[in-house]
Amino acid sequence: MLRGTVAADPTRRVVLAAAALLPLAAVSGCGSVDVLATPPSEAPDVGLLRSAIAAEQIMIAYYGTVLHGARGPGGGSAAAGLAAALEPLLAEHRAHLAQLQSRLIIPVGTSASASPSPSGRAAGAHPVPTAPAAAIAFLQAAEEAAATALLARLVTAPSSLAQLFASISASEATHVPVLDAVARGPAGQAG
Amino acid sequence: MSRQASPARQAAGTVSALQAALTAEHAAVYGYGVAGAHLTGSKQAAASRDWVAHQEARDKLEALLRARGSQPVAAAVAYRLPIRVRNSSGAASLAVLLEDRITTAYLGLVALDTITVRKFGALQVQASALRAAYWRGSTVAFPGLPASALAAPGPGSGSGS
Lengths: 191, 161
Known about the structure:
The complex is a heterodimer.
Chain A: H1 2-8, E1 15-16, H2 17-26, H3 43-71, H4 76-102, E2 104-105, H5 132-153, H6 159-184, H7 186-189
Antiparallel strand pairs in A: 1-2
Helix pairs in contact in A: 3-4, 3-5, 4-6, 5-6
Chain B: H1 7-36, H2 41-67, H3 88-110, H4 115-136
């Protein structure tokens, strides 16, 4: 019902889910959703969310590239160890992305260009080094940069989005020492 | 809604969030003292390092409260700890519990509109998540966020097609 209502209003291509749910909840007793005729302002919050989503998609692409290399032929046990260490971190990035995307309502029928494509090389992404040690150092730097970028984004975000950004930023910060341990372990020394 | 709150209500919200974080820090300072007594070597050094970090955060919160004309909540003489610590693994579990609570308390600061407090909260969320990950031995996707704050993945929650 929520998505249908949003889609029915052509001027409201995308709204923040959290902001949209609030007025809906307030009128849920009377069965009307007319309150969406005066929706909250859209642009800045959606822009913050979109850049956070794009950043997560880039991180997922980075991990995918490194894992693809580790699973390739001739990887050996060191590569298997690397993959085992990276998989949980990738899973957390996927969870981040799902939560961020759940905060956006993209109406059915909106063109796919409304959301950055996860396939291929994402905009703003850098080439990932192929040597394992260099790849891990690259992921570490990317995690640090992603965590810092979210700290900057949360300053102007609405409260609930700021909390999500802070939590994801913290999660990404915790990936750095994990990667540090990987780099000092056998998998990291392989390259 | 909170963004339209009156200045007085906003200030009251800031003070109560700061007091909540301070209460969690008082408990952590106490708890790390207990945990440290059951640890040795590098783990004890880590507990000692974290204990100092919590004292510093406590001092910062007290200063923020005083700057707002509020009396910081005092530490209790003793705290009922969430688990009874008998050995080193219990000490690590206690540290995880304390850090998780603190992470959530600092997320309360992140929700505030005062930029300096929000930034301080976000940095403390990072710091406590890092300490929690150390003691837990693994990471989590959403430090400090209760499950109820997260959208359940599945139909209706995705970005759509």
